[in-house]
Amino acid sequence: MSIDLSQFHQVFFEESFEGLDVMESGLLELDPAAPDDEEINSIFRAAHSIKGGSATFGFSDVADFTHVLETLLDEVRAGTRSIGPDEVELFLQSVDCLRELLKGLQAKEDVDISRAEDLRQQFEKILGMAPSDGASLDDAESISNGAWRITFRPEGHILRTGNEPLRMFWQLAEMGTLTVTTDSSSLAAFATMNVESCYYAWELQLEGRNIQKEAIEEIFEWVCDDAELLIEPLVAEVAEADENENENESTEAIEAIEDNLQDMESADAEIIPADTKAIEPADAAPKNDAGEKAAKPTVSKAAETGSIRVDIDKIDTMINMVGELVITQSMLGQIGSDFSDDKLGKLQEGLTDLERNVQVLHESVMRVRMLPISFTLSRFPRMVRDLSRQLEKKIELVVKGENTELDKTVMEKIGDPLVHLLRNSLDHGIEKPADRVKAGKPETGIINLHAFHQGGNIIIQITDDGQGLPREKILAKARENGIVGEDEALSDEQVQDLIFQPGFSTAEKVSDVSGRGVGMDVVRRNIHALGGAVSVKSEEGVGTTFTISLPLTLAILDGQLVRVGKEVYIFPLVSIVESLSVDVSQVSSVAGACDVLRLREEYIPIIPLYEAFGIEPDSKELKNSLIVVVESDNVKVGLVVDELQAQQQVVIKSLETNYQSVEGISGATILGDGTVSLILDIAGVVKMAEGLSSELDEKAA
Q1: Which of 36, 29, 16, 21 is nearest to 88 (CA)?
Q2: Residue 189's pLDDT band (boundaries 50, 70, 90)?
Q3: Which DSSP state fits 552?
Q4: What H or E segment, with its residue span, contains residue 243?
Q5: Most exposed of 205, 213, 223, 455 (fewest Cβ within 10 Å)?
Q6: Is the pTM of this model over 0.85?
Q7: How sure is the predictor about 670, in pLDDT bands with cuts at 50, 70 and 90?
Q8: Catalytic annotation present for 67
Q9: Which of the residues 163, 357, 424, 457 is marked catalytic?
Q10: Could you tell me which residues come within 8 angstroms of residue 470 by beta carbon, excluding any fewer than 6 positions away?
């Protein structure tokens, strides 16, 4: 029997990318002058896991490159070699290289290993290693030109530590021809077997050229304290054998091992009583079908793009709630089968339980898609480090709220806007060290990246202590481009908001960091597409703060139901400023435009929704209607409706996917009575106001 390892590739890639993130963050935090042992160990463990996994799955280019990287890390870990800024930079380049190699393998593309070869040569130069072809064979204790005999007698509890002998044998088979003899002399009587115990020992013979003892020891590194292990060289001439024949022999040996292990597992499974729960040590990680040790207690859930790693606690909560629903269903079914008036109270009680359990289950299911925002923020320290060097600036990034959870879909789409904002803070915001000193500031600029929940939204703030936005320079550029009239007076907030205009830039020269005028408008557009908003607040000489407000999820919306004629629409609650009865005395008509409502010190354009959507309302008289004031891009408009109904959470269904894109509509939902209700796109409705004004003006003419 053989196992198709390709089914485990996706898990390997996910865990490898997580390992690279661990390596990168550890290297960025590492102080070369006084390296922390735990940081070095975490970096080493991540590299070791990637090397072992890649060797198991036959990704030899990754395994070979990671091996030399791991060797240097091991010397640093042992204290026999120091690590300086140059070595840290080389390790960071290696992380980038490994990420490229793994992405290519994941996409099943041909990978270019030239960069890996160049980096490996640099590592070998540091290590003082000779090329592999010139390895000395004199020392039979370290390198065997013939074969190795390996005696492996694991202790009975080895399987409970998450270690699987089969995986080790796979790695050995990658190094040469492996012959395996299983010793079952310690096999317990059938009636006394335990599924968690290992009863086998193995005698292995590994044949190949230039196999280092260190490489064999590394394979058994995780179990050396839980097994009797003896590795002896068998120096002998090894004849050149046909590669296919060697591969077949190794495959047969592995298949024999698999059969033995599976026989043991199936036998053990039969004798464990049904009410006996397998006990696993607290520090033992769960394993998948291939015996692979999971990085943490999570479940990998397939998705359209990649997967989601879900905490076991979230899955347990869902299972518990399903159990509660089954109980409620059983109770309601029993009442329904023999219903009478005296059971009405129990029926109402059951329906109340059903409503509560469905609500909890609904929230639990939504939490499955929620991930810590650190998945997005983790790449920014490296970006800030590299760009600050490129710009010859000293910049420190401070990240807060990394554990704030956000829907995976929102998280994937917010990455690029955050990159734009950070790059602008790096390039335009933070000054050169000399300029900061002249301004009485520390040489090192600070950028704070803070994420937190506020109501039903997540707020992300990017704050720098740089030079701030130059008001007069922005205003002059806007007038030069015809965005603002020569005599038009703007508040500080309005001037600062001009940076989000398409093509607007005050950069004196174009760079590959920023200044092309194609960034900030894209940021606002992308954030609006997520149902969010972005604003800026700045003070010259003090700094700038960008604030992004996003919905926690794109699947659910807190909405206000409103009726226009016979149609019911849903307004996103986050967009509503207030609702009010119309005071006709506060309404004015503007030539060539729609009516405006004077609300305190503001003039707000009024949009009759019945005209925008071609609906017959209860009344076309404003005095008999209600106005809902909504806001988008710091622009307020008043939407005329007939009636305000309930507020409720609604599940958003894509209108474009099921029908087609409709201007002013972001999606649809199904209400409790089974009818379909459209969800308004407030930003789109605001844009419709201009077109509607033109149409009304043409009709009046």
Answers
A1: 29
A2: confident
A3: S
A4: helix 243-271
A5: 455
A6: no
A7: confident
A8: no
A9: 424
A10: 506, 540
CB neighbour list of residue 25: distance below 8 Å, 6 or more residues apart: 378, 381
H helix or E strand, kind and range, residue 446: strand 445-454
Task: Give the DSSP letter of residue 428.
Answer: I
* Domains of the chain and CATH, by start: 5-129 (1.20.120.160), 143-271 (3.30.70), 298-368 (no CATH), 372-551 (3.30.565.10), 556-700 (2.40.50.180)
Q: How far is CA 228 from CA 14, 250, 334, 630, 676, in A?
A: 33, 23, 61, 73, 69
Residue with tokens 């109904």: 645
Quick check: is 402 catalytic? no
Q: Which two tokens stand for residue 375?
A: 């998945």
The amino acid that residue 583 corresponds to is D
CA dist 158 and 661 (Å) reads 59
Residue found under tokens 């290993």: 113
306 pLDDT band, cuts 50/70/90, is low
- Tell me the pLDDT of the chain averaged across its residues: 78
First to last CA, the chain: 84
Q: Is 41 designated active site?
A: no
Six token digits for residue 168: 């080790």
Which of 299-303, 323-327, 555-559, 654-658 has the highest mean predicted lDDT (pLDDT)?
323-327
Residue 467 has pLDDT above 70, yes or no: yes
List 15, 24, 70, 87, catalytic entry: 70
CB atoms under 10 Å from CB of 175, counted, come to 20
Residue listed under structure tokens 């599976």: 262
What length is written for the chain? Answer: 701
Residue 369: pLDDT band (50, 70, 90) is: confident
pLDDT per residue over 250-293, tens digit each?
455 445 445 544 544 444 433 333 333 333 333 333 344 344 43
What tokens were used for 453? 């929940």
